[in-house]
Amino acid sequence: MARLPGTPVATEPYRLVGATLLDGTLGDPVPDAEIEVDHGRIVYAGPRRRRDLAGVRVIDVAGGHLMPGFVDAHVHLSMSTWDPVETQRAWFPEEHVVAALGNLRSTVDAGVTTARDLSGLTPGYRSRIAAGDVVGPRLHLAIAMLSPTGGHADPVLANGSLPLWAERATTPGWAVVDTVDEVVKAVRALVRTGADVVKVCASGGMSSPHDDPSDRGLPEEHVAAIVAEMGGRQGQPVAAHAQNDEGARAAVLGGVASIEHGYELSDQTIALMLDRGTVLVPTLSTLLRRGAGEDDPASARRTNARESIRRAIAAGVPVALGTDAGIHVHGRNLTEIGHLVRAGLSPLAAVHAGTLAGARLLRLDDQLGSLQAGKLADFTVTAVDPLARPDALAEPDAIRLVAQGGRVMKDLDALG
Ligand SMILES: [Zn+2]
């Protein structure tokens, strides 16, 4: 069982009534619905009950849409888009911490109550959120990512020096591995530090010093060694950064739970993913973000990438929502919902990708991801109908109410 990242819970019972309920499954929306919350858990979810429950407070959210708290399966909360990177180089360590705290808060304000940080964030944040000292999503952490020497995770510059971010890291932000022994040792060290998930670079990527997306990453044999190592440990999944098809195929054959990006998937690799149940996390918010304009040299790559994701979705590959926020701006995570709809998911399926499918990928779906009796009361109430206007969810003001374990974390209408 995967580790459940905690948050404090509300102890007082209450009922939330009147909203249209989209429960995170692919079931039909329920108009004029009700959920009842007690000790942080849902004890009832369904049509509004026409009876009073003595002593249970009623919160009226008529006109809103009630959904589970969203799961963003791919973020980098230690990376900030607040200031240009050159300015950030001059930051003191505490400025990085303050920036990360702001990123955590804006992620919750965007309706994301659980997030998977795929390298960069350290376990202290997870602990402080669990203790209630800091507002932030429940966190699953990769801590660092694995690549070969000179690959996507290797920050060492040609002259052997390190960039500043790598020098100031309190835990290793990367792990360079070239043999099976090194792979196993790196994975064990990450688990010791507190990793919930291992992120492997199965291809090259952008903005690393020595490679690009067409380059190779770790081979299938090394991916399989990671999957075998993690298989015996609380069932933690392995996520593969894979931008080219060869890397994605090696990762799928090696047994990863998810392909992150998947910008150049061949039909054969898509068939393999269907066969193995491999989840795709398309990170379209980063691919299609403003500033990376259609006229830039990467635009042919963008067009191909959108087409790759459309084909995977049309074939029926399971999708979980992930934004790569940290490159995409924090706090607008639900931008991805509109992108997923344009890539071929129905709006209801896009909400499902951002809720129950994400929780399933994190192996937390027995606790999170849908609004059903017995689960933790992580929920959002939006002012817009996500089925009619999926793009409007991107605006933080559209997200009116957010709760974790029944505890209200954002409340624009002063209902709580
Ligand atoms: Zn990423």
Number of strands: 18
| CATH architecture identity of the largest domain | Alpha-Beta Barrel
Radius of gyration: 21 Å
Contiguous helical run count: 13
Strand content: 15-25%
How would you sum up the major sheet?
6 strands, parallel
Query: What small molecules accompany the polymer chains?
Result: zinc ion
Q: Write the CATH homologous superfamily of the largest domain.
A: Metal-dependent hydrolases
- How would you write the strand order of the largest sheet? 11-10-12-13-14-15
Oligomeric nature of the chains: single chain
Q: Report, as a whole number of angstroms, the end-to-end distance.
A: 33 Å
* Uncertain stretches: none
- Report mean pLDDT, rounded to a whole number: 91
The domain count comes to 2
Structural class: alpha/beta
CATH topology of the largest domain: TIM Barrel
Helix content: 25-40%
CATH class of the largest domain: Alpha Beta
Principal-axes shape call: globular
Model description:
The structure is a single chain. By secondary structure, the chain is α/β, with parallel strands linked by helices. It folds into two domains: 14-68 and 372-411, Urease, subunit C, domain 1 (Roll); 70-361, Metal-dependent hydrolases (TIM Barrel, Alpha-Beta Barrel). Helices cover 30% and strands 19% of the residues. The protein is built from 13 helices and 18 strands. The protein has helices at residues 85-88, 93-109, 123-131, 164-168, 180-193, 220-231, 245-254, 267-276, 284-287, 299-315, 335-342, 347-353, 356-361; strands at residues 14-17, 20-21, 33-38, 41-47, 57-60, 65-68, 70-75, 112-117, 138-141, 145-147, 174-176, 198-201, 238-242, 258-261, 279-281, 379-382, 399-404, 407-411. The strands form four sheets. The chain has a six-stranded parallel β-sheet. The chain is globular and about 70 Å long. The two termini are 33 Å apart. Bound molecules: zinc ion. The site of zinc ion has 4 residues, from loops.
